[in-house]
Amino acid sequence: MAAVDAAAFTEVRGLRRQLRRTGVSVNSALLYASLAWMAIVALAALIPGVLATDDPTVLDPARALQPPGAGTLLGTEQYGRSVATLLVHGARSAMVIGLLATTFGMLVGSVLGLIAGYLGGWVDMVIGRFIDMLMCFPGVLLALIIAAALGSTTTNLILAVGIATVPGFARVMRGQVLTVRGHLYVEAARSNGFSPARTVFRHILPNALAPSVVMATVSIGVAIVVAASLSFLGLGPRTEVPDWGQLLSLGQPYLANSWWISTFPGITLTLTVIAVSLLGDWLRDRLDVE
Amino acid sequence: MSVTQARTSDQEDVGVPDPILTLDHVSKHYEVRSSSNPFVRPDLLRAVDDVSLAIGRGETFGLVGESGSGKSTLGRVAVRLSTPTSGRVEFDGLDISHLGGTNLRRVRRHMQVVFQDPLGSLNPRMDVGDIIGEPLRVFDKVRGSELDDRVADLMRAVGLDPSRASARPRALSGGQRQRVGIARAISLNPKLILADEAVSALDVSVQAQISNLLVDLRERLGLTYLFIAHGLPIVRQVCQRVGVMYLGRLMEYGTIDDVFENPQHPYTRALMAASPIPDPTVRRERIVLHGEPPSPLDLPSGCRFRTRCPMAQDVCVDVAPPLVQLGNGHAAECHFAGQLEAAA
Question: Distance, in angstroms, between B129 CA and closest chain A CA?
């Protein structure tokens, strides 16, 4: 018995060693998969014609509701357009909203958090209460309210989703600035006689930024999902080509018979969000100087 | 020296002909608010309580005392990292007690700080060259290859290999990190350097190297140090004059020889008794202090050392001791100063 166990044990160890020698671990395999997936999504967003040759605006009722495999890779929706083509052409909208909304939220939130954390006192109080106010609403609800109030255009969707991410960024940055501000090298910068601007941008910000950057990558995923949710609810921009959220809702009445219309956009969304989060984890490890 | 010299406590003899830093009745008090009851009047923590002191150009003035004696606070007030509650801080003839903004920043280049924690005082995201060169870039607008040369010179001056300029602080040893901190401090040719326990965190052998470096730099660059330490041997090795702090007050000050050979405050004697002499044949009187120092929130009446003083009398409870001048700039704040026999 013991001999068998030992043999199995050495075999497992040998396998591990082999894996290590080839440099492939589960983590790095996931990382490469994420990179590959995001490369595909990026390509689709930049030049969709490479991945999908047919025109996503041409309706063809004769081909409506074909299951996957029969002529088209992922089937067709109720107007006869290929789901795969629509997914490829919807990538741009998802990426643009995800990136711009996160950029907006990170910029506004980080600036607010930086000011609150560095100046403290009543400024911190005012900004803190404002952030608390935003935080009272769940992100999706806040975005929903803003999108409904502003009207459904791409810019407004970006603003709505972006504002929803502001409180998170503000909180993280404020906390980081409070920590970093107490470090001796900040006091050293002060004792050197450097200006407050130099102290903030050269000594505090670079050391306070890492968590916000990691949060941004996660936030891109969240922003894509929130934007898709708003589109699903009909608050997205009215365009000829449906984005991922609209495609989800297009398929909703047909879920029982034509599952592929909603299922593939759902899987695409999920994979994208997971890939972005994994890249965020990797980035966090890379950014950690400690 | 003789201990029977005239007591001239009415005139304050700072004993320094050309002071670069003068502290005149400087206090730093903090309000400590009750954490449970916001309506209670906050307690007053007297971190530094009415300290007067002058540091001569080119000398090294040591400040010793237990943890919590206020020596670091006094150092921070002296270089205006914090603002005195009352009193006057004069640097190179300029009253800097309440300078702020640009005016204060302009003075700061002349008084630099070397901190206790060498790693913590270096920005982890900058390399050694950037850290040392930053003051030159900012104040003297030195750029490009000239900056590289100046940084290399500074690194050589503090005994660092210039090829390490691209290293991060984390990659250096403790002694090397402190050398980086010293190089940054001397980069602008300051007049005064506050060394706040600058060698306390280092290994003993490295302590000696760094303190030798500090002495060497003082001679080469004409620096003045305010040298804060809790170890007496290092102070004796590095400093010309020394001040002893206890609970926010300067208990005794004078030249190294006067204070170490002929301490006239019981607290100074106790501190020295606590410091080991590496010679088993030396016998000396042992003064052992019992208990913790009293809380600086609730100071004893009269003399603040009386609760632990082996010589305390009734007068110490009722009357705050005068500052007794003993000549040669040596003074002690004790009712019995000048009456203690010379230490063995």
Answer: 15
CA atoms within 13 A on the CB side of A274: 13
Residue-by-residue pLDDT tens, chain B, 344 positions: 444 344 433 344 456 778 999 999 999 999 888 777 778 888 888 899 999 999 999 999 999 988 888 899 999 999 999 999 999 999 998 999 988 888 999 899 999 999 999 899 999 999 999 999 999 999 999 999 999 999 999 999 999 999 999 999 999 999 999 999 999 999 999 999 999 988 888 888 888 899 899 999 999 999 999 999 988 888 998 999 999 999 999 999 999 999 998 899 999 988 888 777 667 776 666 677 777 788 888 888 889 898 888 888 888 888 889 898 988 889 999 998 887 765 44
Closest CB to A184 among B115, B170, B184 = B115
The answer to the question of residue A27 being in a domain is no
The amino acid occupying position B124 is P
- Residue A14 counted as domain residue: no
Q: Is residue A8 situated within a structural domain?
A: no
A193 at B interface, C-beta within 8 A? yes
A12 occurs within a structural domain: no
Q: Which of B105, B115, B120 is facing A193, going by the closest CB pair?
A: B105
C-alpha closest to that of A141 among A229, A43, A266, A39? A229
Q: Does A198 touch chain B (CB under 8 A)?
A: yes
B311, B315, B319, B320: CA torsion to nearest 10: -10
Q: Which chain A residue lies closest to B135 (C-alpha atoms)?
A: A192
First to last CA, chain B: 14
Find the CATH number of the domain harbouring A264: 1.10.3720.10
